[in-house]
Write a structure and sequence with these properties.
The protein is of the alpha/beta class and 147 residues long. The protein folds into two domains: 2-33 and 73-144, Rossmann fold (3-Layer(aba) Sandwich); 35-72, no CATH class. The protein contains seven helices and four strands, in the order βαβαααβαβαα.
């Protein structure tokens, strides 16, 4: 499975669950550590007081959707993952901080690799360095796919 941005966080969260046997690897491009961390960062960037706004929104999510923002944690899920994972992130990501790559990579309890794309902004790694990006993805997948 391959996801970018929120899709990357989603595939990382799924990686900690029991998945079908045909899921052989995860590719996460610029995923965030948790909804809480990402929303808190965005509130700060927009000069919105994260407290109490984020807390109230999290409670509403719990009531309406059955989970709060701290439960939606890719960081906690990768600790449980046994699926090989490729983490990709651009150094100039303005939406999901590059430091989240290190947090996720360090926490991952599986076979793992990482690709840093210098100068790439949010979700732009494949555009900034397409040959490096796709060769890395293809080589990573080839390790885990048998025909």
């Amino acid at each position: 499975v391959h996801g970018v941005s929120m899709g990357a966080a989603t595939v990382l969260m799924a990686s900690g669950e029991v998945l079908p046997k045909n899921v052989k690897a995860v590719i996460a491009d610029c995923g965030y550590t948790s909804e809480w961390d990402e929303f808190r960062l965005e509130a700060k960037n927009l000069h919105i007081p994260w407290f109490p706004v984020l807390n109230a929104a999290s409670v509403l999510s719990k009531l309406r959707d059955g989970y709060d923002f701290k439960q939606a944690s890719a960081l906690e899920q990768v600790k449980k993952s046994s699926i090989p994972t490729l983490f990709i992130h651009g150094t100039e990501d303005e939406l999901v901080p590059y430091c989240m790559l290190d947090e996720l990579y360090t926490a991952a309890n599986c076979e793992k690799e990482r690709l840093t794309v210098k100068g790439a902004g949010h979700a732009l790694s494949s555009s900034v360095a397409p040959e490096l990006y796709w060769n890395t993805v293809e080589n990573f997948i080839a390790k885990y796919i048998t025909e």
